[in-house]
Amino acid sequence: MQIVSSAENSSTNWKAQFGYIEDIDDGRGYTAGIIGFCSGTGDMLDLVELYKAKKPGNVLEKYLPALRKVNGTDSHAGLDPNYTKDWKTAAKDSVFKAAQESERDRVYFNPAVKQGKADGVRALGQFAYYDAIVVHGDGGDKTSFSNIRKRALGKAKPPSQGGNETTWLNAFMDARVWAMKQEPAHEDVTRIETAQRVWLKAGNFDLKTPLKWKVYGDSFEIK
């Protein structure tokens, strides 16, 4: 979470990001919370639905009709002018924080770790998968996590199929860089090249600390 947050929020303090919300002009509407839930991609809608189930009558519930309408677009219709303020209010609620963590694990973290273990990769590989699914999702489009992995399979085999872990992760990272460059909003690939690839070159498959890396020119460290 600290490493992802360094790229998503320019800070390793991921627990300070529950209330983060802005439109970063990437065609996905509002991006918010600890993992960049988006109003245009459905995961923010799922999150607010879960929050309603856990705490009916919460401050975000009234936006559900608008979130359903803007899903798949970058529109703010029905969300402005108070959605961002209400999101920040909700982010102080422990129930909403728990809902964000639950959806992060269900949609992103658990599937990434499960696939990583199935492919026989260690913590670095599992993280590379997680970072990819956070940014690209796992839908049907050509840059989705599953299709990034499929592209890598055209070049190498994962350890579970007898492949070399370094060779496989390089192939996966190459495919990921390709996917990043398909979108103008993601053309900076430092989250791979000056972070993940650095640890791969060092043979740090278990992500043992201390970890040093750079994203977008900023330096980070976990001691």
UniProtKB/TrEMBL annotation:
It comes from the Bacteria. The active site is at E8, D26. One of its GO terms (cellular component) is extracellular region. Coiled coil: none annotated. GO terms for molecular function: chitosanase activity. It holds the Pfam family Glyco_hydro_46. GO terms for biological process: carbohydrate metabolic process. This is Chitosanase. It comes from Lentzea alba. The lineage of its organism: Bacteria, Bacillati, Actinomycetota, Actinomycetes, Pseudonocardiales.
